[in-house]
Amino acid sequence: MTEPNKGNSLLAVDIGTLNTRAAYFDVIEGAYRCIGTGQSPTTSNAPVSNAMIGVQLAIENLQNFIGKSLMDVEGHLIIPSQADGLGVDCMVTSFSLGPTLKALTVGLLSEVSLKSIDKLVQTTYASVADRFTLNDSRSPSEQVDEILRLKPDLILIAGGIDGGSTSFIEKMLEIIGLGVFLLPEAERPAVLFAGNNQLQEKIRAVLKNVNISPNIRPTLEIEDLAPAQNQLAGIVSTIRQKQMPELDEVRMLSGGFFEPSSYAQGRMVRFLSSYFGSGQGVLSIDIGASNLSMGASFGGDLHLNVFTQLGLGEPMRDLLSQTTLEEIMRWLSLDIPPETVLAYLYQKSILPGFIPATKVELAIEQAVVRQNLQLATRWMIDRLPANLRSSNGLLPSFEPILASGAAITGAANPGQKLMLLLDGLQPAGITTFAIDQNNLLAMLGVAAEVNSVVPVQALDSGALTYLATVISPVSDVDYGTPIVRAKLIRDDGTEMSSEIQMGNLQILPLGARQTARLQLRPLKNADVGLGPGRAGEVDVNGSSIGIVIDARGRPLRLPPDQVKRRALLQKWIATLGD
Amino acid sequence: MLAPFTHILPLASVIRRRMLPSDGRIRVKIGQRVKATDVLAETVISRKHILLDVAQGLRVSSRQAMPLIQFKKGQKVNADQVIAETSGLFAREVRSPVSGRVVVIGGGKLVLETGVSLFELLAGVPGIVTEIIGERGVVLRASGSLIQGLWGNGQLETGVMMSVIDRPDEGFDPNRLDVSIRNSIILGGILDNPAVIKNAIDLPVRGLIVASLAPALLPLVAQASFPVMAIEGFGRKPMNSIAFKLLSTSVRREVTLNAASYDRMKGDRPEVFIPLPVTQQPPELHEVDTFLPKQTVRVMSLTGPTRIGTLIKLSSTLTMLSNGLRAKTAEVQLESGEQIVVPLTNLDVLG
User: What residues are paired with B50 via a beta bridge?
Assistant: First the structure.
């Protein structure tokens, strides 16, 4: 093994709600590689109440794995690395821990600026607790009282196109200024103004310590969230440090490279959409205990969504305000009474770190994962600009789709991981799935700020695990009708042909490290991702699963009869490898 | 791996740090003995405000209005009292619509604070005040039995505990709630019958300690003005044997049921505290440790019963579970003698 170059090593830490991960990157044979990872439970909750302990434990586990000391005997990180090889040259940190932040949004019109500012909230670990708009029926006194009652962590103000009317926002500024002033100093929220640029001076005069970003709606037609998103990421970091003072030390060790994981992951997805250059979008999903985040990037344009109501821990308690028990239960491949499923949701909300230990518990957990992915997909599509939405309301074409989060990466086998993603996301056309087994994307997203070469070379060296290539034809013919003829021509010269019927899930065997040319000939005007009725061929890589043709229909319609539905779900699971 | 603790102890020194949501007034002194329902401190949590646009009312500019306002910040104003007025032929005045206190004056406007709601910080356990934390909180020390649960409805009460169950796996029979146990804190079993809540409200009782709770009953439980605590959480789970033994042998004693909501960040948990007279301070609660062989552990389940056992061995590598998942595990010998493999995330240490 080549000795790592001095001066290049990087330690990346991700502090999640339940787990803290540490990854060590160094240059091997001229390129950055992930040398190893370590993990520990996050320790921000009582009785430890110090996230730094979890960071130290994760680094200790990493040290044991890579056989190199990064900390001194007292547990202090050695930065930069020493002549004897001890230590590391720099550190970066991403985080997703902490309670969901309460946001108050202010905008002129609910369909314009308020919609944009709400979208901005949904790019981070926050939820909208109340909204003030032009049509608000409350008196100014009642609005002041609402600020005092709500005690928001964040107030986000938009409104007015650049150069437009300022009177409403000026009036709101007085109310917000008053409400903030009346709160005890330690409880005052962070305020971000992202509206009419003519008001910036006035804002500074009314509100102390206000954050100002360029207008998110400079004109009625243009929405530009990116600069405000950047500001918001910084604000969220500051709020977390206020809530957990030990994070000051983490930030200091990280030389200021300390960012919300969703924001860092978004940066990586945006980068990857240029890097892969597939002409399609890149989608990343991360399912955690406190939220489900989805980042979609098209040609460097990022659409980030953090669904704090869809986490697999505490948010499960309120999941039935977003969906129904029947919708969750339709994904169960086992016969489980509804009372058991309901009790599971509530019990998991008080025991978020619990690992399903039986087949029944796993079936319920994975039914929730499928349903949450479905909800998130639907909501994400609704929030995309019209030009990026497909006319049939299906998931736009993504290549690749990257998945992280223990509920997926920890599934029993690759087939189970893919099945969760196919049922939950229901992609259309040709898609490659990859797994971010060690939640590296967010860490690499922050690392990119320090050294843009790290993510490129780390990804090239296999930081992500390829899962499978999936072809999902779209057609409205009856079940049982042939819709695609596929021919797989392997590089070793062997061939395989198959005719796929509507409603079927089929595997074309192609082992790991094998490559092939896949010819696709749609029938009955089906769309395999090349346009309705258009034939074509693509190069594909094999995996332990093979090449998957998912002709089960889009959207997927499950039989209403419970027995038939369970049998069909079991058959599909068996097809991909139970 | 750090092990979470659940305290089910016949005798311990309990230290409780009680904090206001914001700075306020502390009402106790160090060394003072308090009851569980005593108020330790209070703070204002919500206020009503009236924003009066004096300039508009007087039809003058904001700048002109300022010297006309006859009150200063902090002063009390009575309803209908003149706040500001102009003189001359077309004199105008602005009167206060309500009684209140001036909290802000500026820009030709005045803000009155008209009503306050107080948050009262209750002791939660009967004990002695050992520390005052600025204007924010109080530390208490108490000695007695402690039984922690998994879910609580956020309410607190003290009373004599009576039992309506003979076994830990019994259902809570609504017919056993009769006048003989009126105004008591009731030790019940598995709560899945809405009639229990209705009868408990009608009787009334001072609180319910149940083994587990059907989630479908939560809207009904929300109507109860007394504390409800589920020791094992949700579903149809029998009470663990250690908690059952300790509670059922404490019947007719005065207990404090603090059915606090489970707050993982702060460490607040629902608990039953049974004060006991002591001549010597018992040991303090053990809060942090790693998993170790010989520990008494609770094996939690999301769908099945909770079980008690002894940790035998920790696995050094990931173990494959019966459902195919891989996890760090421990071998646990259950009370029945059966030996099982459990993910560490599904265990907590009893002690």
Answer: B112
Contacts of A161 (CB under 8 A, 6+ apart): A196, A215, A217, A218, A219, A220
**What is the extent of the structural domain holding B69?**
45-116
Strands A515-522 and A258-260: what pairing? Answer: unpaired
Cis peptide upstream of residue A338 (ω within 30 degrees of 0) = no
| Cis check: omega of the bond before A455, within 30 degrees of 0 | no
Q: What is the pLDDT of residue A470?
A: 98
Among B47, B215, B304, the residue with its CB nearest the CB of A346 is B215
Average pLDDT estimate for A33-58: 95
Residue where a domain terminates, one of B80, B98, B116: B116
Average pLDDT of chain A to the nearest whole number: 94
Q: What is the pLDDT of residue A7?
A: 62
Q: Average of pLDDT values for A523-529?
A: 95
Residue tagged 């006309």 (tokens):
B68
What are the beta bridge partners of residue A95?
A15, A260
Contacts of B329 in chain A (CB under 8 A): none
Put simply, the answer to whether B47 touches A364 (Cβ < 8 Å) is no
Q: Measured on CA atoms in the order A26, A32, A35, A37, is the torsion positive or negative?
A: positive
Residues B244 and B310 occupy one common structural domain: no
Q: Are residues A81 and A105 in the same domain?
A: no
- State the Cα–Cα distance between residues B328 and B2, nearest whole angstrom: 13
**Is residue A278 scored above 80 in pLDDT?**
no
Substitution target in B136, B264, B289 with the highest count of A β-carbons within 10 Å is B264
Identify the domain containing residue A51 by its residue range.
10-95
Picking from A95, A123, A156, the residue at the C-terminal end of a domain is A95
Contact pairs from chain A to chain B, CB under 8 Å: 139
Q: Which of A3-12, A103-112, B166-175 has the lowest mean pLDDT?
A: A3-12
Taking the CB of residue A478, how many other CB atoms lie within 10 A of it?
Answer: 10
**List of chain B residues whose C-beta atoms are within 8 Å of the C-beta of residue A140:** 51
User: Is the pLDDT at A2 greater than 80, yes or no?
Assistant: no
Residue of chain A minimizing CA distance to B328: A355
Q: Locate B272 and state its tokens.
A: 């039953």
Helix (H) / strand (E) containing A234: helix A226-243
A33, A65, A95 - which closes a domain: A95
pLDDT score at A6: 44
Across chain B, which has 351 residues, the per-10-residue mean pLDDT values are 92 93 93 95 87 93 93 93 90 93 90 88 94 96 96 96 97 96 97 97 96 97 95 97 97 96 93 93 86 96 95 96 97 97 96 87
Q: Which two tokens stand for residue A436?
A: 């971010």
Would you state the torsion angle of the CA atoms of residues B166, B170, B173, B178, taken in this order, to the nearest 10 degrees? 20
Q: Which of B2, B234, B264 sits opposite A347 (nearest CB)?
A: B234
Structure token digits, residue B220: 């009904």
* The pair of three-digit structure tokens given for residue A322, joined into one six-digit string: 């977003």
Q: Which two tokens stand for residue A299?
A: 């040609």
Question: Could A343 and B111 be called an inter-chain contact, meaning their C-beta atoms sit closer than 8 Å?
Answer: no
**pLDDT tens figures, A549-572:** 999 999 999 999 999 999 999 999
- Cβ distance A22 to A11 under 8 Å? yes
Residue (of B190, B186, B168) closest to B176 by Cα position: B186
The token pair at A541 is 């890589």
Q: Kindly state whether residues A518 and A432 are assigned to the same domain.
A: yes
Q: Which of residues 314-353 of A touch B (CB under 8 A)?
A: 339-340, 342-348, 350-353
- Per-residue model confidence (pLDDT) at position A166: 86
Do residue B302 and residue A48 have CB atoms under 8 angstroms apart?
no
The rounded distance, in Å, linking the Cα atoms of A11 and A177 is 42
- For the record, the structure tokens of A328 come out as 């969750």
Say yes or no: A412 contacts chain B, CB-CB below 8 A: yes
Say whether residue B325 is in contact with chain A using an 8 A CB cutoff: yes
Percent over 70 (pLDDT), chain A: 98
